[in-house]
Design a protein that fits this description.
With about 800 residues, this protein is α/β, with parallel strands linked by helices. The protein has 27 helices and 41 strands. The longest helix is centred in the last third of the chain and has 22 residues. The structure holds pyridoxal-5'-phosphate. Pyridoxal-5'-phosphate (PLP) binds next to strand 31. It comes from Flavobacterium kingsejongi.
Length: about 800
């Protein structure tokens, strides 16, 4: 991209101040990106947590010179170019629309409720032998993601594949003008709830707006959709059942039988679950529309592969951290991965293992020169290049080692070459970089608890949206972040500018400090022997009794601190910890004019905020809190923060927000209210693998105590997870189930310490396949109900020997 500012000003309707002759070669919305430079046009977007305008000076000092802002910053007058607009997001979209207009080649626009990203990735794979394709990186399909995707187009591309995702009425029209698809693809419209829409009809109609001017709409024929397609739209449809569809399809296992007016043929897919099959058929329809022959379609469809859409962070050997993006090596996603790498600050040193990049649209010298510049702006310490092309162009890079093939890399591989660093592993599929990840990964057993960091951000924003303006937020990350990982989550919360973290014990707080967390941390249950460490690590104790207060004051005096932040806990009915009304006079007398400590906050805890039938009790607790805390505040003439609400308190008692709330389980996607649960995203998914499969005959038994006796021939799979990992024994004996290949497989017999067995009769699966213990289905809420406990216990019981893997979508 090389654009003149002069042309951009009218395109986004800006007021301008600065030098109109400047040129722009890249666009950024992320102040942290090391890719920002003097040719960057920075759009200062304002989101829920961050306002891009806050970073202007910092960016200026890093050499960024062109800014799209809503207000002209007087103090930076004359120092840079400013394009002042009403709304910076709209300006970004206008900019992308302006940029898009310079290109005229076919564009496939993909939308739907499920399968968008998979269809986009598969179409890219299927069509790439014939086309130079630009596609949305990852699942960049939002109001921000689509313009950023469009901006990746260059002169050499001759086909685009962009996905569009919406959650509100009116959003699709904005994406349509950016993508302007010539070929429309509607993927599965799902049975998912119609959140953000009044009805299913409204949701579907909104999605169809993407295809307003498309020459063709490709979709699965369905009366519900048919009724909403505008008259005059040309369509190309398929169906398993409807004889009016253009293409008739029948499925038998992995075989699809295709019948069109011109061809009758069979294709074999490498899978048979219904959603993958449907996505593959959608791709097949596009290939047919493009005029591909049955022979080519047969050959290519059987090579379809599972799509990994996300960057995974894993623990590697020798204290390394791996960022696994082993199935992807286009230029756009490389930029994203490098920004992600920059934001992972576990280690100083950064290494990238990169394969040849295909389909950039550029000539190879231009491509690798650009990539080398990108690496140098991202301050990558070491590059390992694998492939003929990167080897040929190695001279553009400093500190690169190259190998012609992945096998050559393994030939020279020495595990001691990798230590104390973050390693981004990014390769195109044919290079099989998953094998490199496998070598570099720290080996533990194959059960993992996957934590979706995006879902945490989503849930955080959901609860934030329930707070009145100015209310502060403490997030409880006790018990290892409710079992989900404390350090990684704390870092994310720090990024989201949460005000406080809360943990139960001093050593949890110390671990967070040692991991580099600098934000305020409250310790709920500090024990006297830990007071010294609490002060040394700058942690803030909750004080709940006169005896504890005296003990803390003694240690505070030894350390000679003054105004040390403490939090006063009041007992308003929970009867766990806290000062009662009768203690207040002593508390006031001891603390009044005491220079050692300063009360940062006064809090209490609710006992029944999640039980609607006990609403009166909660109201009485809030009233009592009001009374006691007011007495304290007025006797001491102080204005500390007051807080009493936990997650279900935030949901059910909005009048009790005071100055701060304490969010816990809600962050992890759990609510006591079914209605609210719909708005939350699942955070943790516990997965394992099938170790062994066997068939047993009627009358044979499974496991300790022979609690399962087969009544007919039964296929049994053994999974390496047991009660020592936190799976309760009472979940066994067909009370509970695992999900295998989208189907329920009941747990048969007793759960063992390290293993359990499931009945997989009739489920297509193999040894080594992944199984799900909990996640979206079954949810921990469902599990907890069946087991007569609460989701908190299920989450925090998962043993620390289960590896946690964090990822972003
Ligand atoms: C755990 C805890 C919370 C958070 O409770 P959730 O129900 O998980 O939201 C809040 N305050 C205190 C004192 C806690 O111990």
């Amino acid at each position: 991209m090389s654009l003149n500012i002069q042309n951009i000003i009218p395109a986004i309707g800006a007021q301008f101040s600065g030098n109109p002759d400047a040129t722009i070669d890249t666009v950024s919305i992320d102040s942290r990106s090391l890719q920002n430079n003097s040719g960057t046009l920075y759009f200062a977007l304002s989101g829920q947590n961050h306002d891009g305008h806050e970073y202007l000076e910092e960016l200026l000092s890093k050499g960024v010179y062109n800014f799209v802002v809503t207000q002209y910053p007087e103090q930076l007058k004359g120092k840079a170019n400013f394009l002042v607009v009403h709304n910076t997001l709209e300006a970004l979209q206008l900019f992308a629309a302006y940029y898009r207009n310079a290109f005229d080649f076919p564009i496939i626009g993909v939308t739907g409720s499920n399968g968008k990203t998979i269809v986009k990735e598969w179409l890219n794979f299927l069509l790439s032998p014939e086309y130079n394709i630009i596609r949305s990186p990852k699942s960049y399909n939002s109001q921000v993601g689509v313009p950023l995707s469009i901006i990746g187009i260059n002169e050499k591309h001759n086909l685009g594949i962009f996905e569009a995702g919406i959650s509100l009425v009116g959003e699709m029209a904005k994406l349509e003008v950016l993508i302007r698809p010539t070929i429309g693809v509607l993927t599965n419209i799902g049975s998912a709830h119609n959140e953000g829409f009044q009805s299913r009809e409204q949701k579907i109609s909104e999605k169809l707006k993407l295809f307003k001017d498309a020459e063709i709409l490709i979709y699965a024929k369905n009366p519900e959709v048919d009724a909403l397609i505008p008259a005059g739209t040309k369509t190309w449809s398929w169906s398993f059942t409807d004889p009016n569809a253009d293409v008739q399809i029948s499925q038998k296992g992995t075989q699809l039988h295709i019948h069109t007016s011109q061809h009758t043929f069979t294709v074999t897919l490498p899978f048979q679950d219904s959603s993958s099959v449907e996505n593959a058929i959608t791709c097949l329809m596009v290939l047919l529309y493009f005029g591909y022959s049955p022979a080519v379609i047969q050959e290519r469809l059987q090579l379809l592969y599972p799509v990994e859409m996300r960057l995974k962070v894993k623990n590697g050997i020798n204290n390394t951290t791996l960022i696994d993006d082993s199935y992807n090596s286009d230029y756009q996603s490389l930029k994203i991965a490098l920004d992600f790498l920059e934001n992972q600050k576990q280690h100083q040193k950064k290494t990238v293992i990169l394969s040849d990049i295909f389909q950039s649209g550029w000539s190879n010298p231009t491509l690798y020169e650009t990539v080398a510049a990108l690496f140098s702006s991202n301050q990558i310490d070491r590059i390992i290049g694998i492939g003929d092309q990167i080897t040929t162009h190695a001279h553009y890079f400093s500190n690169i080692t190259t190998y012609a093939t992945t096998a050559d890399f393994f030939e020279a591989y020495d595990p001691l070459d990798f230590e104390n660093e973050t390693i981004l592993i990014k390769g195109a599929r044919p290079f099989h970089f998953e094998e490199i990840v496998f070598r570099l990964e720290e080996k533990t057993h194959e059960t993992v608890l996957e934590i979706n960091l995006n879902a945490i951000s989503h849930n955080l924003n959901f609860f934030k949206s329930k707070l009145q303006p100015g209310i502060k937020l403490m997030v409880m990350v006790k018990a290892f972040g409710y079992g989900s990982g404390s350090f990684e989550i704390a870092r994310l919360l720090e990024y989201h500018k949460v005000d406080y973290l809360g943990v139960a014990f001093a050593d949890e707080g110390i671990a967070l400090r040692n991991a580099g967390i600098t934000m305020p941390i409250m310790i709920m249950n500090p024990e006297t022997p830990s007071f010294s460490a609490i002060i040394n690590f700058g942690l803030e104790p909750e004080i709940y009794s006169v005896k504890e207060l005296h003990a803390f004051l003694r240690v505070a005096a030894q350390h000679n601190v003054s105004d040390y932040p403490i939090h006063i806990k009041l007992d308003t009915g929970m009867h766990r910890l806290g000062f009662e009304a009768k203690d207040l006079d002593t508390l006031i007398a001891v603390i009044k004019d005491n220079p050692r400590v300063s009360i940062k906050s006064v809090l209490s805890h609710l006992a029944t905020s999640d039980e609607p039938e006990q609403r009166d009790f909660t109201l009485s607790q809030i009233a009592r809190f009001d009374l006691l805390s007011s007495q304290l505040l007025s006797a001491l003439h102080i204005q500390p923060l007051r807080h009493i609400l936990n997650t279900s308190g935030i949901s059910n008692f909005p009048h009790g927000q005071y100055d701060m709330v304490r969010l816990g389980i809600g962050l992890y996607g759990v609510s006591n209210d079914e209605n609210e649960t719909k708005y939350l995203e699942n955070v943790g998914t516990l997965k394992s693998v099938i170790s062994q499969i066997r068939t047993i005959e009627a009358g044979e038994s499974v496991g300790y105590g022979r609690k399962f006796i087969a009544s007919a021939t039964t296929v049994i799979a053994t999974i390496p997870i047991g009660y020592a990992d936190g799976i309760r024994r009472s979940w066994g004996n067909e009370v509970g189930y695992l999900i295998v290949n989208h189907q329920k497989a009941p747990i048969v017999g007793n759960i063992c310490m390290d293993m359990l067995m499931i009945n997989i009769t009739g489920i297509a699966c193999h040894e080594g396949d992944t199984v799900t213990i909990f996640g979206e289905n079954p949810s921990v809420t469902i599990m907890a109900k069946a087991l007569g406990t609460i989701p908190y216990e299920i989450l925090t019981s998962i043993s620390q020997r289960v590896k946690r893997v964090f990822y972003r979508e």
